[in-house]
């Protein structure tokens, strides 16, 4: 792969960047450069926001299109992205090490599904409602498009998480400036080309590849009306502070340290559950915010469950992300691998026991690989049980009874995902209801487009997905009718 771009997608056009600074993208599997793009500067962000502002304020523009026309344009974009899915998939996998099979399911397919789903909602959801008043007269309640959205996206699922934002925003009639992470900018060019081809009007979608400084400039920009952010809790706190000062609406999807609760009746036969367990605990090399990386196991079955997870992790195929059979690819960056290795060392230092993995795979001299790693004898107070590692590392924590399991699950700063594994779905649901989290699965886990997704506590504020997410991009106006 050798992809080089010289312009930025701003105002529906390919424009020259204001500086010669560039971002070089490196393959996580080979450590070789695979492309480069201009690095957007503050002046480029200003131009992108101005273009989004003009597109939003145009009295005949996107915000004023009939919802059915916006829906049709979104469906055209979905069609182009579907056609170009494999290109997106290859770029994402090469950049961040996501196994290509995972990338096909998520990065290739999910944005297409979301665009079609929100296009349908744009068509079917009324934006005006007349309510009879209690003091006589009626009120017209309107849901108006909120304005210019700054969408800031991390590197772990660059296209899917961008679509979590742009699909409802476009459906609502907003315009966007999207800032991808520097690690994953090549896929944003395929997306920009798809936008241009779809006939979505100039300036409705603008893209500024860059780091946190341009991200911070976008967050505080006076002409931005809303920030939608996915990323680390540390960055989310700082963005939340700025938005608080500016009284700017903000949605924050942040980190997680979710619990996978194995109930004492669960018959975990790897033949049957390995795939679901994988998605719930190790998807995308552990670089997924919702993963249940704290596995809570009943003390009476602890040894058996440690053995099961050891076998499960040991059987995973580690390899180049672009190999169809790879289950665990490399960490996205050298820094990310160092971070994961620091946590593994900390876990050992705190007295937890590595039952498998713990190092770099012997047969990989290139790429930022870490072996799938299982820690047994972890105390929930250990750093590896409290902080997000963002790598293929699971911590197995024993519990005494169901109350203890719920207490441990909730003894976390975070609350984003989680699972309950049981042979009794009703019992599983009862436990799921007691866990403080934004989402949780019983014997399965995967974000569902039709249901709200997001976190409580340090995992964020607000929800994406579902019909609820349209409201993130709408402003309510009540018109009292005399
Ligand atoms: P990060 O917070 O460092 O960066 C995320 C994005 O924000 C990048 O585009 C970055 O350039 C930008 N950014 C960073 N600081 C900023 C600031 N002060 N102002 C504006 N923009 C800023 O996170 P990361 O390391 O790229 O991503 C991994 C993190 O994302 C993990 O903690 C993970 O849990 C979280 N995540 C959360 C969800 C979710 O839905 N809750 C989904 C995926 C990832």
From TrEMBL:
Residues of the Aldehyde dehydrogenase domain: 14-479
Active-site residues, record numbering mapped to chain: 253
Segments crossing the lipid bilayer: none
GO molecular function terms listed in the Swiss-Prot or TrEMBL record: oxidoreductase activity, acting on the aldehyde or oxo group of donors, NAD or NADP as acceptor
Highest rank taxon of the organism: Bacteria
Coiled coil: none
Database matches in Gene3D superfamilies: Aldehyde Dehydrogenase, Chain A, domain 1, Aldehyde Dehydrogenase, Chain A, domain 2
Keywords: Oxidoreductase
Family named by the database record: Belongs to the aldehyde dehydrogenase family.
Protein name: Aldehyde dehydrogenase
């Amino acid at each position: 792969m050798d992809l080089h771009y010289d312009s930025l997608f701003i105002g529906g056009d390919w424009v020259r960047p204001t500086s010669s600074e560039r971002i070089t993208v490196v393959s996580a599997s080979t450590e070789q450069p695979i492309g480069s793009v201009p690095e957007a500067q503050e002046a480029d962000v200003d131009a992108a926001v101005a273009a989004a502002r003009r597109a939003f304020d145009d009295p005949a523009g996107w915000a004023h299109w009939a919802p059915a026309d916006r829906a049709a344009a979104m469906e055209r974009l979905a069609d182009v992205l579907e056609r170009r899915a494999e290109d997106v998939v290859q770029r994402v996998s090469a950049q961040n090490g996501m196994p290509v099979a995972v990338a096909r399911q998520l990065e290739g397919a999910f944005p297409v599904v979301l665009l079609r789903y929100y296009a349908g909602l744009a068509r079917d959801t009324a934006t005006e409602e007349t309510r009879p008043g209690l003091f006589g007269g009626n009120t017209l309640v309107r849901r108006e498009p909120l304005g210019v959205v700054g969408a800031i996206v991390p590197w772990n699922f660059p296209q899917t998480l961008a679509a979590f934002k742009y699909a409802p925003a476009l459906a609502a009639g907003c315009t966007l400036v999207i800032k991808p992470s520097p690690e994953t900018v090549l896929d944003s060019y395929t997306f920009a080309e798809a936008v241009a081809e779809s006939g979505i009007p100039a300036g409705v979608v603008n893209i500024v590849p860059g780091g946190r400084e341009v991200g911070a400039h976008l967050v505080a920009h006076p002409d931005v009306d809303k920030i939608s952010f996915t990323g680390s809790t540390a960055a989310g706190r700082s963005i939340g502070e700025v938005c608080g000062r500016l009284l700017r609406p903000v949605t924050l999807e942040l980190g997680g340290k979710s619990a996978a609760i194995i109930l004492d009746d669960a018959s975990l036969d790897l033949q049957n559950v390995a795939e679901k367990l994988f998605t719930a605990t190790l998807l995308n090399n552990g670089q997924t915010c919702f993963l249940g990386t704290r596995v809570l196991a009943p003390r009476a079955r602890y040894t058996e469950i440690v053995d099961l997870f050891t076998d499960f992790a040991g059987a995973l195929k580690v390899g180049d992300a672009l190999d169809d059979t790879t289950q665990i690819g490399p960490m996205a960056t050298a820094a990310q691998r160092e971070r994961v290795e620091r946590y593994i060392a900390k876990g050992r230092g705190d007295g937890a026991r590595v039952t498998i993995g713990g190092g770099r795979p012997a047969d990989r001299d290139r790429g930022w690989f870490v072996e799938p790693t299982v820690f047994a004898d972890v105390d929930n107070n250990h750093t590896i049980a409290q902080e997000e590692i963002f790598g293929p590392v699971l911590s197995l924590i024993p519990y005494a009874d169901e109350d203890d399991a719920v207490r441990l699950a909730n003894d976390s700063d975070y609350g984003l995902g989680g699972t309950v594994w049981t042979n009794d779905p009703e019992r599983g649901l009862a436990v799921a209801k007691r866990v403080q989290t934004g989402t949780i699965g019983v014997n399965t886990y995967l974000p569902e487009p039709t249901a709200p997704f997001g976190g409580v506590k340090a995992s964020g504020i607000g929800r994406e997905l579902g019909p609820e997410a349209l409201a993130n991009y709408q402003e309510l106006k009540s018109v009292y009718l005399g």
